[in-house]
Amino acid sequence: MAHESVNVVHETEVERQHPRVRIPATLHLEVRGQEQTFRLIDISAGGFAFHGRGNSYDIGRMYRGTLRFAIDPMGMTLPVSFRVRNFDPANQRVGVTFEDLDERQTTLLRQLINAYIAGEVVTVGDVITTLSRNNFTRARTQQVARKPQPQRTRSRAFTLTGVFFLVGLAAFTYAFSRLYGVLFINHAIAAKVAAPSFAIAMPRDGTYFNLIPPNGKVKKGQPIGTFQAAMLDVVQNDPGSLHLTPQQLSDLMGETLKGTLSSPCDCTVQQKFALDSQYVNRNQPLVTLLPEDAKPYVLARFHFDSMQDLRVGRTVAFQVSGESHERYGTIRQVRLLPTPIGNDERGSASDIRGLDSPGTVSDVLAQIEPTEALPRAMIDQPVDVQLGDPRSAIAGPIDEGVRRVRAMLAKL
């Protein structure tokens, strides 16, 4: 059964009892085809009574008329519909109740009644002010009992909630890991897997002939190549200082200078830069030799500002390019980055090729000994080095969680 919403107005106890008051007003009603004027006996918010003037009225019948009130400085009419509830022929008293009063009509009647009870004079401004505002409150909405959702709908909602939660958690963890890496982890400028090696360069401008065995292994003192240069090219820088005659210079044009390049150690060829019978300029690298007893380690370059964090014996984490897991090592040596060795002709062993560049003498190099031995095939592979021991009590769980989240995201 449907319930109608009822407009509720806040009113006083006197108003709720529908007091009938005698207000100077008249009722204009059409009776038998003629409009007649009747005097109001009393009126309330629910109905009114008027003098019938000898006419007969049917109880229960609805009539339409107009109420006229005297309001300073003019009058006011109020069209109303009413139903006859009782009729006293002896006293000609007709009692009626209002029918279908709207909010504006109800508000106007209540204002007139309240003003009459309080002894106030109603003006046109008061009427306009009252009619311009909303004097009623909405009926309270009743809570409708919700139907229980089916199990399938609840399961899907729970699943979607869980998926969104996991996605949000993964995004937060990723953002936190990136922020953690930027603010709390100091990375090396550049790093690689290194080992002491020998760079053999061309001593003169000439032709290089390769003597390295196919297996790439040479003994100490074993020839690794020969070179042949024109004798005239050797003395052409300042031939006048030798006081050579034109005939001697002519003879030098057909002479050649031959030389042999020997291995400085029991080595393995790490890299070749020149082909057999190729013309090579002076100081151009020919081959890089790696000693047989060389143990690969990590060599990292840091800004000089990181010097205080580069303590010998400190554990650091690093990751070799191409690997998905981290390795650990200990700082064994810290030194300043020396002057670039591009013009070094002494052929001494070096491990910083690839990390040196002009204008970086303010940087420092850290030699890191790995906990697990690195294969020789990793030499010259780039490395990402992080200062600090991720296995510590504080950073360890964070680093492990970040690593697991990264692995989970990589599988998606």
Q: What features would you describe in this structure?
A:
- There is one protein chain.
- This protein has 412 residues and is of the alpha+beta class.
- The protein has 7 helices and 20 strands.
- Helix 4 crosses helix 7 (395-411).
- The protein is rod-shaped, with a radius of gyration of 54 Å.
- It starts with 12 loop residues before the first helix and ends with a helix.
- The chain crosses the membrane at residues 157-176.
Keywords:
7 helices; single chain; 33% strand; 2 domains; alpha+beta; OB fold (Dihydrolipoamide Acetyltransferase, E2P); six-stranded antiparallel sheet; Thrombin, subunit H; six-stranded antiparallel barrel; rod-shaped; 412 residues
CATH fold node name of the largest domain: OB fold (Dihydrolipoamide Acetyltransferase, E2P)
CA distance, first residue to last residue: 56 Å
Q: What is the mean pLDDT?
A: 78
By secondary-structure content and strand pairing, the structural class works out as alpha+beta
What is the number of helices? 7
Main beta sheet:
6 strands, antiparallel, barrel
Total count of domains: 2
Number of strands: 20
- The CATH homologous superfamily of the largest domain is termed RNA polymerase II/Efflux pump adaptor protein, barrel-sandwich hybrid domain
